[in-house]
Amino acid sequence: MSQQQPQRPQDPIKYGDVFNVSGELASKPIAPRDAALMQATENQAFGQTQKGGPAAVMQSAATVNTSAGLVGRRDISDVARDQGVSISETKVGGNRVITESVGTQVVGQFVEPQVPMNSPGMALQPDAITIGEALEASACSGAGDKAVDQSDAAAIQAAEMRATGKNETEPAGLGATAQSAATRNTRDLAHKTTLSDVLVDAREKLPMDKVVTREDAEGVIGAELRNKLDMRTTPCGVAESMAAAATLNQNSLWFPAGEGSDT
């Protein structure tokens, strides 16, 4: 009995398959030079390719397309060639809102905390915001009534692992509860579990807690983005609450005498 060979994809992965875009771009295959352009643009803007960001998604799709022989290794879409790719930045409060585009179509938008890396000798004020407090803030925000989906569950799981220092989800913990809620919400359209339902009293539900840092915020942002088709963080959601907490914590840094100050 002969074994069946795995079938190659019949159609290339298009922008519309992985991003929430429309019009001409949606039907364009993601080509290697499109991905290279976005990667170079991210490197120039951020100093590195963003984990789970548009460049990483485009690179993965382009690799599949070229491996299957559906696009050439030097191919570029006419949208990327003629209109280019871009990254723009606006400031909202103490955070940077980053928008990444191919031509005129937005392929990703997220909030990045405008926080410098911590230096030796810095200490945080006792009232610095913890991960548990940031999660509770998202429960009480405008996103509190949002039905939990996979992007929320991934962000909560990432936040929990940051708080506990473990690379796994706690059994019956916040992350596991969020994942169960996201799965249940896809099946039960009448009774949705919301972010507020999951994250109320988050501090009490976490076995351990810690102050939110830039690295914590970036890890949660990446987890949320990787699980959203439109590559946009939820307004006032888990990732944005973590970003806001990281910014506030950095603004509360205390320097020992003689360090970090000209006075």
From TrEMBL:
Keywords: Repeat
Region forming the signal peptide: none
Pfam families referenced in this protein's UniProt entry, alphabetically: SMP
Region (Disordered): 162-184
Domain SMP: residue ranges: 13-67, 129-187, 193-251
Family, as annotated: Belongs to the LEA type SMP family.
Name of the featured protein: Late embryogenesis abundant protein D-34-like isoform X1
Gene name for this UniProt entry: LOC113871146
